[in-house]
Amino acid sequence: MENVKNILNVFEDIRKNPDTTFITLFESAAQKLQIFDEELKVPRLSGHQTKRNNINANVNQNPMEWFKITIFIPFLDHMIQELKSRFSDKFVKVIPLEGLIPIHKDSYSTEAILNAAMFYDQDLLSSSDLVLKAEINLWKTKWNKIETNIPHTAVTSLPYCEEYFPNIKILLQLFATLPVSTATAERSFSTLRRLKNYMRSTMTESRLNGLALLNIHKDKDIDIDKVVDQFSRKKRRRMQMEDWSI
To answer: How far is C-alpha 55 from the geometric centre of its chain's CA atoms?
Structure first.
């Protein structure tokens, strides 16, 4: 989150004074185009622009101003808005839960962890401030006496919760799922779009699942000989792939 804040601050600083950064980018692009004997120029404009905002007429003949207004500034605004919406204040409030991970136990105070934990009071077994605060203190005390094999993540911390830390276990489970931003689900949709096309409309579910798993888990090693052997044993084929008399 600190890195996200830093990136957001950089974009906002550029947005306040975009000329310096944009001129550098524009000159760099112009130099690269010279290699191909091309130049940056304003594209042909329609007299009636219905699909985008009309640009002020006095910049139509100035490529630098045109690209800054139509591309650079809208791009900055879009990135700033996306960062703010994706990493909202509600998510920032629960960051102190990282203090429940033993390796980070001294990074956040008990009060900061307690305030973040109360955001999920309806999910906890006990919503009492005193009970939760006592449990957090016991959890920190436990790890103060251990110097080796200290868990570094929320997932590896879960097995140590036992029955004495039921609320800590719930909070660690919640915290372990919060930062997930993997594209596995999106990757599966993209895979299905490539596999289940109009030329494979009669593909069965079993074959589709197999092809999808092969495409998604490309890092798995597959023994080609075993695949061919299993394929040949499915039924007799015109081409003899193995000795069926054995």
So the answer is: 35
Q: Tell me the whole-structure pTM to 2 decimals.
A: 0.43
59 token code pair: 């910049």
List of residues 6+ apart from 61 with CB closer than 8 A: 42
> What tens digit of pLDDT does each residue of 166-176 get?
888 888 888 88
Given the structure tokens 């699909």, which residue do they identify?
51
Q: Which residues contact 183 (CB under 8 A, 6 or more apart)?
A: none
pLDDT, tens digit, 9 for 90 and up, residues 175-218: 887 655 555 666 677 777 788 877 887 888 888 888 888 887 88
Q: Do the beta carbons of residue 96 and residue 112 sit within 8 Å?
A: yes
Q: Three-state SS for 86?
A: helix
Place of tokens 């090693």: 221
Nearest by Cα to 123 from 161, 164, 175, 87: 175
CB-hemisphere CA count at 13 Å for 55? 19
